[in-house]
Design brief:
Blueprint lengths: L8 E4 L3 E5 L9 E5 L8 E8 L1 E2 L10 E7 L8 E6 L6 E5 L4 E5 L10 E2 L2 E8 L2 E7 L1
Antiparallel strand pairs: 1-2, 2-3, 4-6, 5-10, 6-7, 7-8, 9-11, 11-12
Length: about 140
């Protein structure tokens, strides 16, 4: 569920990411981001959306997507990318060797509904030490 509490499925294809609302009158998938050259040959391991455009109901939209991906070769590092969901399709590489990542929104920090971007949390292994980073 996202976008105004509507049932929404996320479809990730070689072209990009789509939202599909099968219960709509016109249940066609809507493309929300395009797979750029950074992600063209990668397999998507995890996907998450966060943030808010500040709208209510069916106009509510996430503002950013977080993708973890890896090359198809065995033992390849896991990489993280943020993708803007504002129609600009900006793909920002976050890390090229992560152990985990997530979008985080402290519930008390932003009254709802309002426009906001979530915090980005990553875990990396540097010289056998786990480092947790929280970024705006």
């Amino acid at each position: 569920e996202l976008h105004g509490s509507d049932l929404t499925f996320l479809l990730i294809t070689p072209i990009g990411g789509f939202h599909w609302k099968p219960l709509n009158e016109s249940p066609r998938p809507r493309q929300v981001w395009k797979r750029g050259s950074e992600l063209a040959s990668k397999k998507i391991l995890a996907y998450e959306e966060g943030g808010s455009n500040g709208e209510k109901g069916t106009n509510a939209r996430s503002t950013v997507a977080l993708v973890t991906a890896s090359s198809v070769a065995s033992g390849s590092p896991v990489e993280a990318y943020c993708i803007s969901l504002d129609g600009q399709n900006t793909i920002l590489p976050i890390s090229h060797n992560i152990m985990g990542t997530a979008l985080y929104h402290p519930l008390s920090s932003v009254p709802s509904p309002t426009h906001f971007l979530p915090l980005l949390v990553t875990v990396v292994d540097e010289q056998s030490q786990f480092i947790l980073c929280v970024e705006c």
